[in-house]
Amino acid sequence: xxxxxxxxxxxxxxxxxxxxxxxxxxxxxxxxxxxxxxxxxxxxxxxxxxxxxxxxxxxxxxxxxxxxxxxxxxxxxxxxxxxxxxxxxxxxxxxxxxxxxxxxxxxxxxxxxxxxxxxxxxxxxxxxxxxxxxxxxxxxxxxxxxxxxxxxxxxxxxxxxxxxxxxxxxxxxxxxxxxx
Length: 180
Fold this sequence. Notes:
By secondary structure, the chain is mainly beta. It has two helices and ten strands; from the N terminus they run αβαβββββββββ. Strands 2-3-4-5-6-8-9-10 form an eight-stranded antiparallel beta barrel. Strand 8 (131-143) and strand 9 (149-158) form a beta hairpin. The radius of gyration is 14 Å and the shape is elongated. Mean pLDDT is 78; it is low at 1-37.
């Protein structure tokens, strides 16, 4: 869940939870997130984020949708694994300035058929256009793992070079999704 992740929940952002939506880790849980062996779950994720409207020159409020397309290297104390993570949310973004005010709602589908919903925001982002890094903390608000913190720390890469002539419609996201 960067922009993509943020756009994710996954981050949750996107994931968003992405985020997953979202998709995320609060500052208080930053230390445990650094130790995946202590986590319920830690997986490397890959996905895409789409921006509506496309990112362009000048800060604007955009909507994003993040979808995680793969989960690898999963470890942790639970045998459950994510089957899908999607996140939707908003953020202020622009081609040449910082991305701010990221919020997301993420949805997880687990290997046993259960689901989770998460809500998240941002701890740190160093993105301009659709590219850069992000740290998107969140909390699972319902379903499997309700009450647990999520972390989505990763990198988003623009599909194009964002400019007034070529607005940025989407990006890819590679991130570490953690649930503690």
